[in-house]
Amino acid sequence: MTQNTINQPEPVPLIPLEDFFRKPEKTRFAISPDGKHLAWLAPWQSRLNIHVQTLGQTTVTRITEVTDRDIAGFFWKGDDTLVFIRDAGGNENFHLFAVGISGGQAKELTPFPEVRIEVIDDLEEIPGEILIGMNERDPSVFDVYRLYLDSGKLELVALNPGNITYWLTDYNGKVRVAGISDGLNDVLLYRENEKDEFQPILETDFRTEVSPLAFTFDNKHLLALSNLGRDTKALVELDPVTAREVKVLFIEPSVDVANVLLSKHRKVIEGAAFVTDKVHYTFFDQSRQETQKFLESQFPGLQVSISDRSKDESCLLVTVSGDCNPGTAYFYDQSSKQLTKLADFKPWIKTEQMAVMTPIAYQSRDGKTIHGYLTLPVGIEPTNLPIIVNPHGGPWARDMWGFNPEVQFLANRGYGVLQMNFRGSLLYGRSFWEAGFKQWGRGAMQHDITDGVAWLVKEGIADPKRVAIYGASYGGYATLAGLAFTPDLYAAGVSYVGPSNLFTLFSSIPPYWEPIRQKMYEQVGDPESEKEFVQSISPFFYADQIQVPLFVAQGANDPRVKKAESDQIVEALRQRGLAVPYLVKSDEGHGFRNQENQFDFYRALEAFFTQHLNGRSSTDISVLKPLEEAK
Q: Which fold has domain 25-161?
């Protein structure tokens, strides 16, 4: 044994699969407006339910008892009521419920079948009322209603004429801004008060984005993200009468501004957030800057964010996390500058056993810089590794630096994981986004993924014979495209809720996506006027070119990528005699949320990659056998 081998660190132990994917011990903390109570989600009977505790006391009260599906989210409504949202079996028809902090039977506020609810304004200054959007009248559009929590009464506030895609309120809870779209052209609407008719103030094509975020605190101007006349989105202040920019508050030349930071109590625009390799902030307000500086000094190298505040902003909830740290919640007293730890989200995770997620960049074949992240297994020489290429979903989204249980699981099994923000990904500016238009499958979006593999091989990191591709949603499509259109590149692939046939995908989109149908055609391809092109980028029609093993997973209730998308590619391959493990869950939608279903999926994923890439495993490959015969 050479000295070099002796000095090599040992691979970390094989961590139980369940440790990565079981529900967090506590998560999503929120503080009551008066700063006296905490609420959070924690598992009960394997489902995330709301728990409440009075600050300074030890008694914890679980106030919900859902057993079929996690609560998707919640917020405080006053100091003694919580409103939560959940769907049924992954159908994404979210409904609202209310429950008091002492518990008892939760009250369903929107008991309408096949209807989807959106919260437009929680009306924190108006007790007992919230504004919601609801598509009961027309499944494709959302009208605005005032919902009275005590009685459940609904009062129509704004009727959608059929093309409004969003609504915005001022600080008095009045609906004064809306956006309409025919898919290709957007119009910004404004009115001085709710008695007036909306008037168009700005028309743009969909490539130019002027997105109002909030009113200024005097309710006179708008804060918006805008790329009008520029490549990256800036944070601007708009005059809503003329739609002219009063001022540019912040612009980052290399990337889009992602969000604005506001202090409602002090009525101050505190700063802006943007993302390069990690999340960064620029501050306009010295007090907020000093708070951030102090908090970051306590947790060097980690991401620190303020996740919630009491109404007077004297009490803050702080979340601290990193690539190897699943997250910890703290309570911060502004006056005393005292930090109190509330909980580690996953205390069983040992950070020293997790793999570092390194921001990387490589050049595409046409000279674009593609940014992403590379995670390499701990204690293994980073040469000639089996690699999992993991393109993100969306595709109009992006991967971020931080703790990713899936990536950490794969790294623990001995795989390098490459995530890339291929062209079309968001927050890199308009030109990078537009560079992805009609580039699915055989085009530059897929080339960017392929070029990432070539980069890893050239660097000596990847074993070219042991590279697999795995993704969800668009990432699942990219998996199928990779196997069909670059059949010699990958050793195996996994498509998780991924579309295979763009004709059937477009014909079955949810009704509330109808206003953006033409936009999707412009970005992907028109199934009528560009039929040959759309067929050429649909992997289903080239299933005969797929030669390597494929594993497919699908939720039966998926409203975005219907089960038929997975059915047809599985059937096409099986007709050729290929054994395709196919995992379908009857109580899931666009991705698996129930813990037992996640365990089943990741056991099968682990076995599949062990079988075809020879990684480490705690699961016998026999789990795949029944899935090869599943319908």
A: Neuraminidase (2.120.10)
